[in-house]
Amino acid sequence: MSYRVLLVGGGLRLLARTLFDSDALTNAGDCSFIDALEVVRSQSPDVMLIDLSSADALDAIERVMAERPTPILALDPGVLSRHEAFRALALGALDVVERSPAPAPEFWQATARRLTMLAQVRVVRHVQGKLKRLAAQEGPEAPFPLVAIAASLGGPKAISQVLRVIPRKFPAPVAICQHISDGFTEGLAHWLSTETALRVQEATHDLTMEPGSVYIAPSGAHMLVRPEGKLVLDNRPPVRGFRPSCDLLLSSAAEAFGRRCIGVILTGMGRDGARGLKEIRERGGRTIAQNAETCVVYGMPREAVQMGAAEEILALDRIGPTLLEWVDAC
Hints:
Strand content: 15-25%
CATH superfamily of the largest domain: Methylesterase CheB, C-terminal domain
Largest sheet: 7 strands, parallel
Helix content: 25-40%
């Protein structure tokens, strides 16, 4: 099967000439940012590749995701700030990758594989464009409650919606593993810090967590939680293709915090995080999976539900308020 790709942005047609060397993708055409919605309406592409070389790109993403939801991969050429890349994700782009001024053929080969994957994702309309808890195991009491969150495709926007309702004096730290392209976790932390009252930072090795703070697992390292509330960065090989691994974060949180841990698994493709969420529940912690109706991709949460790892299956807008309720009882 061949998926039809619409190229959006001034220079993409020339830059991406080698994108269609394989039979997996065909060119559905190219257009300007202003014309993107009209071309999507007329051509119905399977996936879009949009260059973030102008603020008009964000307007194009917003219009398309409000009117004709289509999987979008955004290319960040470094012309705008990294904050704009995360605005693209918040508006509905599924993923973002960094491109150089003259990408090598290997870059386009990797991009072709990513577009093929994204073309198979069911996306949803973005209104922003319109506007039996189990018995606890014995063990030493953790110093404070912990919220551990796993997410993948669609995660940045989902995470921002969860954190937005949590006040600065939240009595627990929040540890997050988000699958995202290498080099974007620091930008994710900066962007989330503008979306929430909590303090947000990319995690560093041997950092002691504090309540009211959010810690993002950095690119290229597993983030683990220790009983005294410290974060450890681990360079072991990827686990089932991922580093950082959601399973490793959630499993270490289960072991270190036991019944004082709350695990959350948000939108994402695949199954990473489901086993770790189940460990949290088995050790007496509380667990949430995002429901299918509000997920961009109902993969990771579905796997958790099927494994019996989720105590509650909640719409995205109910997750933050539920965390506020639960953390007081931890």
